[in-house]
Amino acid sequence: METRAAVLYEMGLPAPYKESQPLKIETLKLEPPKQGELLIKIRAAGLCHSDLSVINGSRPRPMPMALGHEAAGEVIEAGEGITDLKPGDHVVCSFVPSCGHCLPCQEGRPALCEPGAKANNEGEMLSGGRRLKKNGKEINHHLGVSGFAEYAVVSRNSVVKVDPEIPFSKVAIFGCAVITGVGAVINTARVKPGSSVAVVGLGGIGLNALLGAVLAGARKVIAVDINTQKLEIAKKLGATETFNSRNPDVIKEIRSATDGGVDYAFETAGAVPAMETAYRITKRGGMTVTTGLPDPSHQFSFPQVTLTAEERTVKGSYLGSCVPSRDIPRFIELYKQGRLPVDRLLTDTLPFEKINEGFDKLANGEAARLVVEM
């Protein structure tokens, strides 16, 4: 069959993307699902910095590539061997297809699935190969999803069945922004009630981390960003204090306001200066967690002695240390109860044809979360 998809042929084209048009909406040939795979009609897909980092070249991937990884849709066809999903089911995609058999998967850490990571790095499906072609030439998959498309073939291990009552534009963000941000707080750091938390970088993941801190019962929730509009959003979502990181004294002021630093600091911007700020505002005995994916060449340094002398912890969090099949339904239920109002982060929905303009808004910090609807 054929499908329209947003294809990136060259990384690093200059902004504004409305003019350079890095994403080309192409008509591609899509092969039918093989054993253990699904054909999904994509209904909505979120624009994420993980997509932007491929567009700007800071996260190198094989080209050409059909982008998009935070997507929700409807099952059209289930491949051989799939008995628990049927046409008409609503699903959310997860950007790490977990094999269930490697050591990390067996240890309950599917975000670190080894075959999944290999497939993602090579632009392939979990079972190998590619299902997209243009004029007979293969197009690489983005994180096993390639969700900026009308249709996608994905591994059964890349999807989670969800409540059909929730609009696709809202449920799509649970596949990345929610599980990464909230999961970093709940799963990676295991924030304790009554503790103090700071979130440095208020994009979609950072604002979800903030919601996670409120959910966890933090007594102080400090929001840090260079964008005053994002700081205002953070206040409405439960931040107890906000700080503009353009202020040269911001670290001193936060440490003063928190009696020496916070118990947990989350860096979600994917930038070394943000990580440095997060580390320096973490108190003695505290934990600094990063969800950011900066350019691989960028280096972060800190006084090594503080790890021992101050019993510090520095942790990375990928996919929010989540088990998607467990955590996405949990987070959706909390959303339905009004305890995790992630829909308030949805800045706007866009038609597929304006996807490049959407990435301009994302790059300029003009949006918390944008979703394209198919």
TrEMBL record:
Gene Ontology biological-process entries: formaldehyde catabolic process
Entry GO CC: cytosol
Domain Enoyl reductase (ER): 18-372
Domain of life: Bacteria
An example Gene Ontology molecular-function term: S-(hydroxymethyl)glutathione dehydrogenase [NAD(P)+] activity
InterPro entries to which the protein is assigned, alphabetical: ADH-like_C (IPR013149), ADH-like_N (IPR013154), ADH_Zn_CS (IPR002328), ER (IPR020843), GroES-like_sf (IPR011032), NAD(P)-bd_dom_sf (IPR036291)
Membrane-crossing segments per the record: 171-191, 197-218
This protein's record includes keyword Nucleus: no
Coiled coil: none
Keyword Cell cycle belongs to the record: no
Membership in a protein family: Belongs to the zinc-containing alcohol dehydrogenase family.
Protein name in the entry: Zinc-dependent alcohol dehydrogenase family protein
Organism of derivation: Heyndrickxia faecalis
